[in-house]
Write a structure and sequence with these properties.
Layout (H helix, E strand, L loop, with lengths): L7 H11 L14 E7 L2 H9 L8 E7 L2 H9 L5 E5 H8 L5 E8 L7 E4 L15 E3 L6 H13 L7 E2 L4 H10 L4 E4 L3 H9 L2 E5 L7 E7 H5 L1 H23 L1 H12 L3 H11 L2 E3 L3 H16 L23
Parallel strand pairs: 1-2, 1-3, 6-7, 6-8
Antiparallel strand pairs: 3-10, 4-10, 4-11, 5-8, 5-9
Helix pairs in contact: 1-9, 2-9, 2-10, 7-11, 10-11
């Protein structure tokens, strides 16, 4: 896939960053620092393993979060400049703030291990069996939440026929293992860990129910600063290269992911395989697809307000102002 080229104005700005300018700081403070939010070390491991940031004209400071909800809250509060999150949590955040924009899209055919899980000895064999049971969709507004609602709809089960318990990943894993909850809707690395270490079974995967889309989301303060915007534009290009490297080197990607995150080899191999994704252009077709997810999520009553997807997409490769 051909990646878009940076606009000449941004290339000029990036050259200035190389020379030592930084957003909100004096020239003596060195290059700009791009603060990037990640979940469970997955994207940081990918980028570092690929060497995609080698020679970048800015520093990257990573922050790790257990799920997208706290990551996007940090993005909204300007504690980070850029965050990587799935479609459902991105839309949830966009429904309650005008400070976040989508700047890049990627898609995973395996949907990053998104699945509705039950314990290995669970008597539950179908989504319909969840009636009267307790399920954690991990955090509210997450891709796990969206998958659960879609799966219940597919099975003809009303959401009020199950007890929904929002639990952070570590708590949800413990609750499922102890029998405190009957099912857990989550994503990798949590799905891979549950499968490999606890023998969890996939009750329903995301095939046909989710988009597999993940987004790079930026806050408006970062986008409004010329130097930070230039770094954002360059980072999206390099991130695309990292994704290509992972597809070209799956075994090396899995090995380095396991080393960087200290995950067991079986977990790292499974997670790395399902994490393979590619960048997608922010086309009208993709906008329409995401709008469909937004409308459905709003109909479920999850979004605070309806989201106009076209209004929250911003191409960081485009020049700003006159």
């Amino acid at each position: 896939m051909t990646r878009r080229l940076l606009a000449p104005a941004l290339l000029t700005t990036l050259a200035l960053v190389l020379a030592g300018c930084s957003g909100g700081a004096g020239a003596d403070d060195g290059p700009v620092t791009l603060r990037v939010g990640d979940q469970a070390g997955i994207q940081q491991a990918l980028v570092e393993a690929s060497g995609a940031l080698d020679g970048s004209p800015y520093r990257v400071e990573w922050s790790q979060f257990p799920a997208a909800a706290p990551l996007l809250e940090a993005l909204r509060g300007e504690a980070i400049d850029l965050g990587i999150a799935g479609d459902a949590p991105t839309l949830t955040a966009l429904s309650s703030t005008d400070r976040i924009r989508i700047v890049e899209a990627t898609r995973s055919p395996s949907q990053g291990g998104l699945a509705l899980l039950v314990g290995k000895d669970s008597p539950i064999r179908s989504v319909a069996d969840l009636r009267g049971r307790t399920v954690s969709p991990t955090t509210q507004g997450s891709i796990g939440h969206y998958l659960l609602l879609r799966a219940l709809e597919e099975a003809g089960v009303r959401p009020d026929e199950v007890t929904i318990s929002f639990l952070q990943p570590v708590d949800a894993a413990a609750a499922m293992n102890s029998g405190a909850i009957d099912a857990w809707s989550t994503w990798d690395p949590y799905t891979a860990v549950a499968q490999q270490e606890s023998g969890a079974r996939v009750l329903r995967d995301a095939k046909g129910l989710g988009t597999g889309l993940t987004f790079l989301d930026a806050n408006t303060a970062a986008l409004d600063d010329p130097d930070t915007r230039a770094a954002l534009a360059d980072f999206t290009e390099r991130y695309g290269r990292a994704l290509q490297w992972a597809r070209d080197n799956p075994q090396e990607n899995a090995r380095i992911y396991g080393e960087l995150t200290d995950r067991p080899a079986a977990v790292a191999d499974l997670m790395a395989e399902r994490a393979l994704r590619a960048s997608e252009p922010l086309t009208p077709e993709l906008t329409a697809e995401l709008q469909g997810v937004a409308d459905r999520y709003a109909d479920y009553g999850v979004l605070r307000e309806r989201v106009d997807v076209g209004a929250v997409i911003e191409d960081v490769g485009a020049p700003v102002g006159p």
